[in-house]
Write a structure and sequence with these properties.
The protein is of the alpha+beta class. The chain is globular and about 65 Å long. It has helices at 32-63, 72-103, 115-132, 152-168, 210-213, 228-234, 237-247, and strands spanning 111-113, 136-141, 148-150, 175-183, 196-203, 251-255, 264-271.
């Protein structure tokens, strides 16, 4: 499988640089203000989740007919309520996790991980949601992918956010293709040193305009040139995916012609564990409460 190399400059202003680490190799302790912001948003997240879960619970009661049969029109309306509620829960969870990463309060546990297991978990999680919408998810993985030193939950979440974004913008009959391979610096099959894992999440959706691509991975404090549609598309999922990937020394970007029907390709690269590579501790994010959108 031939996946193109990362571009010189990624969407959202990221130049493809890895996360900077302090000279001693360990992250600086987060400030008290950053920790307080993280704790506040975590508390607010729990507060907002409670009524949303109650709403979704009653909506499920209606869908399953426990309160009597629904007409087709009523069922569509209740399903729209469920979809909107689940989307809101996703936004809250992403926002809380973004805050934890920025403050250094995240509970990431990096370990040597089989990337195929991560992808299969993400597909298993979002497969029912895609199936309910009539969307297919296809996974094409090369054999012997090696291992990556990542927090499995964090990377699964990053891939899951890409899948959720694609499902949301696809109509019935849409297709999501996930291709994963290992690439050496020369593009061939060399030694493990310097090899990368490459993940491509491609969809058959409407595509993303060149101007809109600039903002996809930017955090929520960037209001310049944002339209209401861009904010609705972007939300918190893609900025969080970028943060999670970059924390592991990886890169993420999008490729799309912007022409309707051409779809989009979201690309992730991560360093594979070489024979002599020591495990590294994940750094805290140093870019402030809501970051700088990946700009150096």
């Amino acid at each position: 499988m031939n996946i193109p190399d990362s571009p010189t400059e990624h969407a959202g202003g990221s130049s493809g640089s890895t996360v900077e680490r302090p000279r001693d190799g360990f992250p600086e302790p987060p400030s008290e203000d950053a920790l307080n912001r993280s704790r506040f948003l975590t508390s607010m997240g729990h507060t907002l989740r409670s009524p949303l879960n109650a709403i979704l619970g009653f909506a499920d009661v209606l869908l399953y007919g426990s309160s009597g049969p629904l007409t087709d029109r009523q069922r569509r309306h209740v399903q729209q309520l469920v979809d909107a509620g689940e989307r809101q829960l996703e936004i809250i969870d992403n926002l809380v996790e973004l805050s934890r990463i920025h403050s250094g309060d995240s509970t990431a546990q990096p370990e040597a991980t089989d990337p195929l297991r991560i992808l299969e978990t993400a597909v298993g999680t979002f497969g029912p949601k895609a199936e309910a919408k009539g969307v297919s998810i296809l996974l094409d993985a090369e054999p012997d992918l090696g291992a990556v030193h990542v927090d499995p939950e964090g990377l699964t979440r990053a891939v899951g956010n890409l899948l959720s974004n694609a499902i949301r913008h696809l109509d019935e009959g849409g297709v999501i293709r996930i291709a994963v391979s290992r690439e050496s610096p020369s593009g061939g099959t060399g030694s493990p040193a310097g090899e990368t894992l490459q993940i491509c999440v491609a969809d058959s959706g409407p595509g993303i305009g060149k101007e809109e691509q600039k903002f996809l991975f930017q955090d929520l404090d960037h209001g310049d040139a944002f339209t209401a549609r861009q904010k609705q598309r972007n939300g918190t999922g893609l900025p969080l995916a970028r943060r999670l990937v970059e924390r592991h020394g990886g890169q993420i970007w999008v490729e799309s012609s912007g022409r309707r029907g051409d779809g989009s390709r979201f690309m992730i690269t991560l360093p594979l564990i070489g024979g002599d590579d020591p495990p590294t501790k994940l750094p805290a994010d140093k870019t402030g409460a809501f970051g700088n959108g990946g700009r150096p």
